[in-house]
Amino acid sequence: MSDEPRSTLRRTPRLKPHRILVLALGGVSAMDLGIPLQVFGAESNAALAQAQVPTGKWPYCVDVCGVVPGMVVGADGLSYAVDVGLEAIETADTIIIPGATSVVDDEPPAVVVGALLSAFERGARIAAISTGTYVLARTGLLAGRRATTHWSTAKELARRYPSIEVDENVLFIDEGQLLTSAGAASAVDLCLHLIRGDHGVGLSNQVARRLVAAAYRSAGQAQYVPRSVPEPLGDVFADTREWALQHIGEQLTLTDLAENAGVSVRTFSRRFVDDTGYTPMQWVLRARVDLARELLEDSDLGIEQIADQVGLGTGANLRMHFQRILSTSPSEYRHTFSE
After folding, report:
1. What per-residue string of b and e applies to 49-85 under the rule 16 or more CB within 10 Å gives b?
2. Same domain, 112 and 24
């Protein structure tokens, strides 16, 4: 079964910037509010636009709205001057709902619920970060769907909205037009996931590099590990992952990886899953497919050449793993994402 969420090939047209609107409600989290602005902001990504986008224009524009224009009092004693109200939602392509202290204990205003329902009906994409999932839940759109939120409020979400399949042990969930994520840093994973789906892994990796963030963390990775992992061991595994990426075109076995890390195969396997959400060889396969995606986007190499270069051997093998993980073929992927 694929671990790549269903919106992988949902590409945003590049001729017109994709309009993202971040909804700031009372008690909004500064981190949840700021992350989408940093990830999608044109000014933050000006250099990347010149390097990665043929037109030299950043493919997104992002703005913040409140229920009404004016000051929004956020969490931690911060306030924000918001220039536009809910009317801005009418022209948004993607709406992001950050977490806020007010949304768990109090129902969101009816006008917010109505605006989100109207946006969904016209096809807008809606993503909720952390407790922002409570706002999305109030619309009824998540009924019968999977969703997540910050682990500390997940049980309350499940109690209050029993029709939602709440999973507190993942970073984010993609249900197509509706997406939800856990708290804080997982918002970065969600936003990068949206860029990957809209414009491919090349641009997503460049944004991740600018943010000094992991280019890809599995959506199914646990929000937190309830037991401690020795820090030196984590450092060794990070070095081993980097070593594996440098040798990704070669034959790599579980024994090779464990020997590089200096631990037993059993210890390496167990700790690796805790750290990445993947078994070691699943991670290697994922890295190979991601490299193949970049080569399909940015090179003229044939399928057989790419398969050999990323360590998958044959074009048939590459096609099989592409179909299983991404539910598409390499040629279709290249047609969708190549310049």
Report:
1. beebbeeebbbbbbebbbbeeeebebbeeeeeebeee
2. yes
Q: Is residue 6 part of a domain?
A: no
Distance of alpha carbon 191 from alpha carbon 127, whole angstroms: 9
Are 275 and 193 in a shared domain? no
Nearest-CA neighbor of 108 among 19, 21, 171, 28?
28
DSSP 221-259: S-S--SS---HHHHHHHHHHHHHHHHTTTS---HHHHHH
Distance CA 237, CA 243 (A): 9
pLDDT of amino acid 325: 84
d(CA 290, CA 298): 12
Q: Name, in order, each residue with C-beta under 8 angstroms of 163's C-beta and a sequence gap of 6 or more.
A: 142, 143, 144
Q: Which of 23, 18, 68, 24 lies closest to 40, judged by CA?
A: 18
Q: 3-class DSSP state for residue 33? A: helix
In this structure, what DSSP letter does residue 118 have? H
Q: What is the CATH number of the domain that holds 270?
A: 1.10.10.60
| Same-domain status, 110 and 241 | no
The pLDDT value recorded for residue 51 is 57
Who wins on pLDDT, 175 or 105?
Answer: 175
More confidently predicted of 222 and 107: 107
182 and 265 both lie in a single domain: no
